[in-house]
Amino acid sequence: MSDDDSVKATISRRDLLKSGAALGLAAPILPGILKGRSPEARVRPRAAAGRGGILRLGTSDNFTSFSPWQDDQGNYALFNNLYSQPLRDTNQINADKPLMWLAESFQIAPNARSVTVKLRPGITFHSGYPLDAEALIANWKAISNPALSNYAGNWVPFIGEAKRIDHLTARLDFKAPTAPALVIELHARMSLVSPPLLAKGPKAMLTEADGTGAFRLKHYEPNVVAVLERNPKFFLNPLPYLNEIQLRYFSDPNAMVAALESGELDFAYDVPPQSVASLKSRFTIMGGPASIADCVLANCQSGHPFASLQARHALQHLINRDRFNQVALFGTGTPTQTFAPPGSLAWKPSLAKTFPYDPQLAQSMFKSLGLIGSSQPIRILQLTGIIPAIGLNASLLAQEMQAIGVNAQLEPADVGVWLDKFKGSQAGDFDLMTSSDGTVNRYPILQTAGNTGSKVASNPLWAGGVPPANYINAINQATFAVTPAQQQHWCQTFETIQQNESFDIAVAYQRTQYAFSKKLTGFMDGRDDWLILDHMKYT
Predict the structure, then answer these.
(1) Under CATH, what is the fold of the domain 51-83+213-283+517-539?
(2) In terms of CB atoms within 10 Å, which of 111, 278, 389, 538 comes out highest?
(3) Per-residue confidence of the chain (539 residues) as pLDDT tens digits?
């Protein structure tokens, strides 16, 4: 195996999500000053009660970097305690309106062509380096740099010049009027890193972290444990309650569950769905907001069976989403035909009625295309090992196809081969593959605009390697939509196009599941899939 192959074999859960992040709903806010309840108001007088102790947290995801812009999907529990953002939209009472966090004020110009951010005074990074206007500008530049950030595609279309106004205030000018909701959402996810660490280059963050979060990095053993200790200078005194967090890594999610049951762990992150029912009697189980959708990807390039839109629509009618939810997700998910859940800005009721399960109709459509009884098999790439539900999705899909006379052939592949055939040197060497993708439930504008990179990248999902023109237009229009009505229209348009083209077919939402001992309290309002632990304590 080559060095390159060895890297792929240890790929993290984040790399399986081709859209970059599991995103969701944040209500659009018009240009102006963003106002909200101050974080200090959430710290009650008796906050010191229950202080101290060590939280032993388990995760089965791989870890590759302390950069919050490179490897955040499986490491929320780590990054959101090491780092903070100008705005914060998680673990709060008004989840639809981000709180001022590191920012003291956040003002979008009436013409939507700039944002002015004033930082809180007196905040330092864990190293002691000051959080000031220059630090904010350094982070704006870094997070929009494709060499440093997986979020760069979200920023590049609109980010312009940054200017220091005073010691704590900076303004970011945009290339064009830009959707205020997008600007807000990006800053609510913009974890700030100290400029000295950024100056060391991306390799430094393989082993180092320097943020402003409630906890700071104390010790790290690759793929074994990351130890975080209480930040005594955290700006929300007397938080955090805990003295230390030990984030322990497990290559096998079942081993993580066993460690929880034996008392080795206090908390298990991303519990496999098959374990949820057995843990309920002994542990508190919390399901985060729907964040990941299992899906089927169709190769739309010439020469493949699903280059035909009719074939992709036939496939939509053949997917038994209820069965998948029960068999693969053990009833913990929600069957879906779209990536926009009800309640999302991108949702409209007609999305749920387009492709009902109808194997007889699917058989008729496949027959008219000459795909019933064909000697040429349809090759379904099946992921093995990591995230079993993705592989089981492929198996169930093959069964449905074979039941109506379609010659379907599973091709098992480990994660390295799976990724290479999706976007590596063997990209396109499949007819169908199963995957997971981000839902559009909490950040619909960001999810839509976040497909910016997709509009230029050659990809087997696109006929001829080029995405549809209407798809590109919807991305552009959502990025620069100024009013809430415009934002909703273009998010719904984008979702409609994606569903109609059927290059990426939603099957069921996975709700991230957490299990923790009943002696732990502190989660806020059920929005806890980001696992910000500053309020967690022992009772």
Answers:
(1) D-Maltodextrin-Binding Protein; domain 2 (3.40.190)
(2) 389
(3) 333 333 333 344 444 444 333 222 222 233 455 555 566 655 544 445 567 899 999 988 767 789 998 865 456 778 889 999 999 876 555 545 788 999 999 999 999 999 999 999 999 999 999 999 999 999 999 999 988 998 898 999 999 999 999 999 999 999 999 999 999 989 988 999 999 999 999 899 999 999 999 999 999 998 899 999 999 999 998 999 999 999 998 888 899 999 999 999 999 988 889 999 999 999 998 876 667 899 999 999 999 999 999 999 999 999 999 999 999 999 989 999 999 988 888 999 999 999 999 999 999 999 999 999 999 999 999 999 878 899 999 999 999 999 999 999 999 999 899 999 988 889 999 999 999 988 887 788 888 888 876 777 778 998 888 889 999 999 999 999 999 999 999 999 999 999 999 999 999 988 778 899 988 887 765 555 557 788 888 98
Q: Which CATH superfamily is domain 87-201 in?
A: Dipeptide-binding Protein; Domain 1 (3.90.76.10)
Rg over alpha carbons for the chain, rounded to the nearest Å, is: 23
Q: Which residues contact 71 (CB under 8 A, 6 or more apart)?
A: 12, 14, 63, 64, 65
Domain boundaries, the chain: 51-83+213-283+517-539, 87-201, 290-512
Tell me which architecture the domain covering 290-512 has in CATH.
Answer: Roll (3.10)
Instruction: Measure the CA–CA gap between 67 and 152, rounded to whole angstroms.
Output: 13
For residue 53, what is the enclosing H or E element?
Answer: none
- In 343-397, the DSSP E strands lie at 378-383
- Return d(Cα 43, Cα 435) in angstroms, integer: 41
- Provide CB contacts within 8 A for 212, sequence distance 6+: 83, 84, 102, 123, 124, 125, 126, 131, 192, 234, 235
